Amino acid sequence: MDEKHNNATPQRPAGARPLDAGIIPIDIPKYIYQIKTEEAYQRNGKNAITVFKSEKITITLIALKAGETVHPGSEENEATMSLQLISGYLFFESLGQEVELNDGQLLTLHQQLSFNARAIKDSICLLTMVK
């Protein structure tokens, strides 16, 4: 198996963290701290970091300030998803259904379904997409 790493960016100059390998330990509290202290979170009210990415699975940690939203992008429309709320409170709607997510709850969504998720209070969630 070839290991895959990300590249350094102006936002994250340290770069070179593994995204795909045989085993990748993922320090969720460390990444929560990182994305909440980056300028993007302070400026935009939301920030995210991909913690694993292979041909079929992408796992992204997302931080949202109260009132901020997450919408599907083109990649999400092609994947079955799970959204686990680590902490906070989210209002989620899709197909006319409305769901409130609290700490520790998990929601699944099939591909090709549009959705809107809004943070009622500051929230941290883990989005997993499977193609």
- Identify the overall geometry: globular
Strand-and-helix sequence, N→C?
EEHHEEEHEEEE
Find the count of extended strands (DSSP E, 2+ residues). Answer: 9
Average of per-residue pLDDT values:
85
> What's the end-to-end separation, in Å?
19 Å
State Rg.
15 Å
The percentage helix is 10-25%
Strand content: over 45%
Contiguous runs where pLDDT drops below 50 for at least 5 residues:
none
What structural class should be given to the helix and strand makeup? alpha+beta
Q: Give the helix tally.
A: 3
For the sheet with most strands, the description reads: 7 strands, antiparallel
Which oligomeric state applies?
single chain
List keywords for this structure.
3 helices, two-stranded antiparallel sheet, 7-stranded antiparallel sheet, alpha+beta, 131 residues
Describe the structure.
- The chain is α+β, with helices and mostly antiparallel strands and 131 residues long.
- It is 15% helix and 48% strand.
- The protein contains three helices and nine strands.
- It is globular, with a radius of gyration of 15 Å.
- The mean pLDDT is 85.
Quick synopsis:
The chain is α+β, with helices and mostly antiparallel strands. 15% of the residues lie in helices and 48% in strands.
What is the topology?
Elements: E1 4-5, E2 18-20, H1 28-37, H2 39-44, E3 46-53, E4 57-64, E5 69-70, H3 74-77, E6 80-94, E7 97-102, E8 106-109, E9 116-130
Antiparallel strand pairs: 1-2, 3-4, 4-9, 5-9, 6-7, 6-8, 6-9
